[in-house]
Amino acid sequence: MKKRAHDGGPLAGIRVLVGRARHQAGALSAELRKAGAEVVEIPFIEIRNPRSFRPLDLAVKNLDSYDWLILTSVNGVDAMWARMEKWRRKHLPERLLVAAIGPATKKAIEKRGATVDVVPKEYVAESVVRSLKSKVKGKRVLLVRARVARDVIPRELRRAGAQVDVVEAYETVVPESSRVRLKAALGNPKRRPQVVTFTSSSTVKNFVELLDRKDARLDGILMSSIGPVTSATLRELGLKADIKAKEYTIPGLVTAIRNAFVSSSR
User: Fold this and answer.
1) Strand ordering across the sheet containing 46-48
2) Is 229 left (phi over 0), alpha (psi -120 to 50) or beta?
3) What is the phi/psi pair of residue 196, to 5°?
4) 166 and 56: one domain?
5) What whole-number distance in Å separates Cα of residue 50 and Cα of residue 34?
6) How many structural domains comprise the chain?
7) What is the C-alpha separation between 185 and 7, in angstroms, rounded?
8) Which of 24, 62, 69, 130 is most enclosed, with most CB atoms within 10 A?
9) Domain end point (choices 138, 171, 204)
10) 163 and 59 share a domain?
11) Least confident of 3-12, 41-50, 229-238
12) In the structure, what pLDDT confidence band is assigned to residue 3 with cuts at 50, 70 and 90?
């Protein structure tokens, strides 16, 4: 990595490609800009409604029958409360315990006036399981998540004796409009990033799908990952997780990127 001046922040002169969904890119982009980075936003992921809201609507109507609600993303929270509003349900049942996969999801739940009872130490599915497996035997659990997701939580909680209902709240798709923009950014020295951010396995998979692997040159570009599952997906698809967040959050990812460049300039 080249040394550079620190004027304007630790990431001054560093161009970072943010691939979060358009409506979610703001927080990550803002933190990177605070650190002095030049941000290029090209979404690798688009959030869409599920093919049918019927399963989620049924779960909302029957919330009183559940002991635990598990939410694994802000998108899931948004979808859940939108359906609650549609069915004029203002609050979660008092007896319902709530688990959130991480601080952003917790904040989104609390913003709606609900209490979060469990947030795991590490913000991944395996840690959710460790936090809950001793608490769910004989209990009914509602897991609200994306259409395509890892099955760690339902599989392991069922092994622990829980009855788990998995409900699709949204789906993620590849934004076709990003294909040309990504090719142009990678091929233009004035827009070519030094770092690409990945905040989920879906962003990695979609990035690879959007790439024209024959023409795409990724040499000199660092891949930054928000957590171990995302890093594993990068490796599976032939990419290296050059920068890894120690805390699996947006601030943790920004800190890791900042630290990588600060240490390289010493």
Assistant:
1) 46-48, 163-173, 140-146, 68-71, 97-100
2) alpha
3) -115, 135
4) yes
5) 35
6) 2
7) 25
8) 69
9) 171
10) yes
11) 3-12
12) very low
Q: Is residue 265 predicted with pLDDT exceeding 70? A: no
Domain holding 158: CATH number? 3.40.50.10090
Domain range spanning residue 226?
Answer: 15-45+175-264
- How far, in Å, CA of 101 to CA of 120, rounded? 6
Dump pLDDT digits (tens) for 32-66.
Answer: 999 999 999 999 999 999 999 999 999 999 999 99
The region, left, alpha or beta by phi > 0 then psi within -120 to 50, assigned to residue 88 is: left
Q: Mean pLDDT over all residues of the chain?
A: 90
**Tokens 């290029």 — which residue?**
40
Residue 195 within any structural domain of the chain: yes
Contacts by residues 4-10 (CB-CB < 8 Å, ≥ 24 positions apart): 4/261, 4/265, 6/265, 8/36, 9/34, 9/35, 9/36, 9/37, 10/35, 10/36, 10/258, 10/261, 10/262
Specify if 151 maps to a domain.
Answer: yes
Structure confidence at residue 190 (pLDDT): 86
Beta bridge partners of 227: none
